[in-house]
Amino acid sequence: MPTSNTSAILMKMKGSHGSVQHDGTVKKVDSNSVLVSISSESACSGCHAEKLCTISGEKEKIVEIKGNYDVAPGDAVTILMEQSMGYKALFIGYLIPLLIVMASLIIMSSFSVSELLTGLISISVLVPYFLILFFFRNRIDRGFTFKLKV
Predict the structure, then answer these.
(1) Which of 6, 46, 103, 146 is the most buried (most CB within 10 A)?
(2) Taking the model in full, what pTM does it have?
(3) What gap in Å lies between CA 21 and CA 7, rounded to an integer?
(4) Mean pLDDT computed over 5-20
């Protein structure tokens, strides 16, 4: 029988595409959406020194699922997300910023700019990128959809 850590995230593979599942609890139900609370536990949450460790912990996340579902607050549900959406999030959050920093480092180094200035400029070019993400967050959010499995 899987432990609580391994059962928190289950992968169902359908060919090369899969879905990620998170168990949660319904917090609030509206006419067109459901708010679900999910707990993400650290990998070391089962350790005997968990209370003393500063890096362990459990965080509660609230996810809004659009749609009309027949659930009530307190019901145990499963949230489904397509695996491809996870890849999209990784691309937007990690790969593009990495490429921006690397390109900036290469360009500034080719102009023989000092290392300190090259590093500062390379990191500062991320500010406009994350500002753009911030201003378009609602549009980006529409691309990430979750489904509810009762």
Answers:
(1) 146
(2) 0.63
(3) 9
(4) 47
What's the sign of the alpha-carbon dihedral 127, 141, 35, 8?
A: negative
3-state secondary structure of 80: strand
CA atoms within a 13 Å half-sphere pointing along the CA-CB vector of 127: 6
Burial (CB count within 10 angstroms: exposed 0-12, middle 13-18, buried 19+), residue 26: buried
DSSP letter for 32, please: S
pLDDT, average across residues 123-133 = 95
Q: Is the pLDDT of residue 101 over 50?
A: yes
Rounded-to-integer distance, Cα 60 and Cα 57, Å:
10
- DSSP summary character for residue 112: T
